[in-house]
Amino acid sequence: MGNQSKKTASRCTTEAETGIHRFEIIGYNLKRGIGIGNFFQSDTFTVGGHNWAICFYPDGVSKGTKMFVAISLELMTNDAEVRACYNLFLVNQVTGHSESIMSLHSTAIPFESHNYFVARENKLEAGCYVRDDCLTIECHLTVIKASQLCKIKGGLEIQVPPSDLSEHFGRLFLEEEGADVIFMVRGERFLAHKIVLATRSPVFKAQLSYGQMETKAHCVPVEDMQPVVFKALLNFIYTDALPDSFDDLDEEDYSEVIKHLLAAADIYAMDRLKLLCGSILVKHLRVETVATTLAIADQHNCESLKQICIEFMASSDKMDAVVATQGYANLKRTCPSILVDVLEKRSRRCKA
């Protein structure tokens, strides 16, 4: 899938405090007749850090509402702006259930007091809300507090560490535990595991298959390859990466080892390693080395590197310097047909 995008997450939380207050009115009938706009008030109760009270108007709040009782919730804290939602209920004295007198539950907007009306004779007194001269009003109140924003560690996901498969196989290579084949490279011994080599290289798979003489002897000689190159080849087989020791080489030695490693990758049919070596050599192309690199690319079937070398030579304004190198002389002697490609491309550029 390639590199994954970094994922982060945050969460906004809003705290709220909820409270319920019951206001019992004993001697309901004695409260009637106190006059329009007059009310009885509950004890003050606190929710969300603010003080509240329920007001009960037995004779309504105006001449037009004198046939109704009015009930309201009042904010008693002075000069406070509060976001709150609430509902007012009458308690059924028979069932004990609370029944809302509001058509809709209020929403969490800045609080404003409103009167809610209940028909005195047709509903309040005719129902089961007044019993033994007792009326109970209930308020459910939720006060919204400040919102908080916080980061969520790791986002809404489980963090999976990078694969350590190459690390484990690299340790297997270095510790040589369970190795079942030995390679002799110019007097140096390298131990490895047949199954790993066969999995990564079709050439190794054929070479180490049962019935082969070298396999029976468990010792395989490797000709025409430097030990440092063969070790780098094995390191790539186990870890899919070049050895860390390459970082200590100077540019000239590094390029030289990479050229030999590209040749080894071609011998053992490891295309990814060959392309990796080619990409490194492209970064180190110079007038002094381009002809030699072109010869290696052609000899070991690295077409992408070959085309870049040809392009480099055809577009170079220092062609005379390239021609003067020993690499160019060797290329002219061993593979003159490649130079035809270079000259043709250069000619087309000059005509364009």
Automatic annotation (TrEMBL):
GO terms for biological process: protein ubiquitination. This is BTB domain-containing protein. SMART domains: BTB (SM00225). It comes from the Eukaryota. InterPro entries: BACK_BPM_SPOP (IPR056423), BPM1-6 (IPR045005), BTB/POZ_dom (IPR000210), MATH/TRAF_dom (IPR002083), SKP1/BTB/POZ_sf (IPR011333), TRAF-like (IPR008974). Belongs to the Tdpoz family. Residues 179-242 form the BTB domain. Pathway: Protein modification; protein ubiquitination. Transmembrane segments: none annotated. It holds the Pfam family MATH_2. Residues 18-141 form the MATH domain.
